[in-house]
């Protein structure tokens, strides 16, 4: 008897289980409790990392790492019929691990509540996945399967790596440009050897989003440290009434909203920020912006950092921006901005697109807002010109040509 | 005219069954095969008969939809592919098949069926004559054709056709 230790529905264990279906190897999958079974002394003695899936044969072969287990359980033909094919199989397995899995986890795990959502990371993951799918799509244009003319370990491993994406987030619109990959994927998951292991696969209809409630449930009690970032977002609401009593009166007197004198207009900053934060930027948020933007009472500005030669490491530029954002807290209610670092370490520039209430340079409204603004050149943009539209779209989407500058990192003031 | 005799013997060999004596009867030269119990007429019927008597029943489809698709494409093979008398008829057929295969790996279901074999044999004489540029134009059909000719024991005495893995004309 051969034993595979895994928790249920692990895409990594699937690789091994499907390979076993093809070779006819009988696998025993005993009951397994993550964090319990794999922490026992007996388990750790065999598999020092305590990671699953892990494999044990009755004659003492012990293996961890799903690709190795799948390799061991597969037929000779599935490992590649000759040297070149065998190498190609390895190539695609590595491609899956390095080009697909990280992006997939970053994108999918927040939807399952396993990880906190971070818009920037998720958008980057989407770009990575698009790139990987594009590469695969070209390869599969002339090939039915990845290597040779048979289903190989390459197909099994990569298919399992893509499984969660296809089930959760690759909605019809997103996957539409990758017809060859879709064809290949559906053919694979409908093979009896795949179906026995993973069951019926239903392709995603609607892109899953971050599941805050599930995240809370999963992380709520057991891991107090991890709860912190979450708390920040959650707490202000219930606490506000109390805090308001203590804080607001003193704060109120000297401040007076610097924007109070300016007409309110029809553009609701809060609503826009909500849309921008929660919806897909390109397909939902930007159309919303152009539909609702009130050019009578709001203006669009372009900022460029005056001293790019002083910028050293990228993270320092990012800190510079975050610091400025903090110091501009008082205009947060009436402004929105995207500041982007272009280039690389020791050769970078910072520029940004801002919108705020009023047509004058907002920083002049209050001395509190004037610490950073003189380090930037500010240019007011014509809200009606197509050039402005293109720039605003690029800066808010963090995607585009940017006049030839290489996007490195962006930050959003909201 | 497609060589039905060669094709049927290949089909029989693929299914590992005995091919009966082949003859052509009547004015229309309908293909017939002698069996132990009588005579079976017509390419699609004979192919189906050979598959049915084999251990590869799966090749006729494993669910009603796949079975219907197999029938549909066997009929298409005889009525459309084999009756292309003019060059532009043929290209219409190739275009249609290419479009159908753009999101499918095989003609019926996610596995090889008799429909694939029949269309492969039926299109072989056409593919022999296609240039690389034309093969690239029907890129999904070419992808499929190459897949079928590599299936175990499918090609047999039919010549191997070369395909490029990298598009070069677009």
Observed structural traits:
heterodimer, A: 414 residues, alpha+beta, Glutaredoxin, Glutathione S-transferase Yfyf (Class Pi), Chain A, domain 2, Alpha-Beta Plaits, 3 domains, five-stranded antiparallel β-sheet, four-stranded mixed β-sheet, 16 helices, 49% helix, B: 170 residues, mainly alpha, three-stranded antiparallel β-sheet, 7 helices, globular, Glutathione_S-Trfase_N (chain A), Elongation factor 1-gamma (chain A)
Describe the structure.
Chain A: It comes from Ridgeia piscesae. Chain A: GO terms for molecular function: translation elongation factor activity. Chain A: InterPro entries: EF-GSTs, EF1B_G_C, EF1B_G_C_sf, Glutathione-S-Trfase_C-like, Glutathione-S-Trfase_C_sf, Glutathione_S-Trfase, Glutathione_S-Trfase_N, GST_C. Chain A: Pfam families: EF1G, GST_C, GST_N. Chain A: This is Elongation factor 1-gamma. Chain B: One of its GO terms (cellular component) is nucleus. The complex is a heterodimer of chains A (414) and B (170). By secondary structure, chain A is an alpha+beta fold. In chain A, helix 1 packs across helix 9. In chain A, the strands form two sheets. A five-stranded antiparallel beta sheet of chain A has the order 8-5-7-6-9, sandwiched between helices. A four-stranded mixed beta sheet of chain A has the order 2-1-3-4, covered by helices on one side. Chain A contains 16 helices and nine strands. Chain A folds into three domains: 73 residues, Glutaredoxin (3-Layer(aba) Sandwich), CATH 3.40.30.10; 122 residues, Glutathione S-transferase Yfyf (Class Pi), Chain A, domain 2; 145 residues, 2-Layer Sandwich (Alpha-Beta Plaits), CATH 3.30.70.1010. Chain A starts with a strand and ends with a strand. Chain B has 170 residues and is mainly α. Chain B has one domain: Glutathione S-transferase Yfyf (Class Pi), Chain A, domain 2 (Up-down Bundle), CATH 1.20.1050.10. A three-stranded antiparallel beta sheet of chain B has the order 1-2-3, with helices on one face. In chain B, strand 2 and strand 3 form a beta hairpin. In chain B, helix 4 crosses helix 7. Chain B starts with a helix and ends in a 21-residue tail after the last helix. The mean pLDDT of chain B is 94. At the A-B interface, helix 8 of A face helix 7 of B.
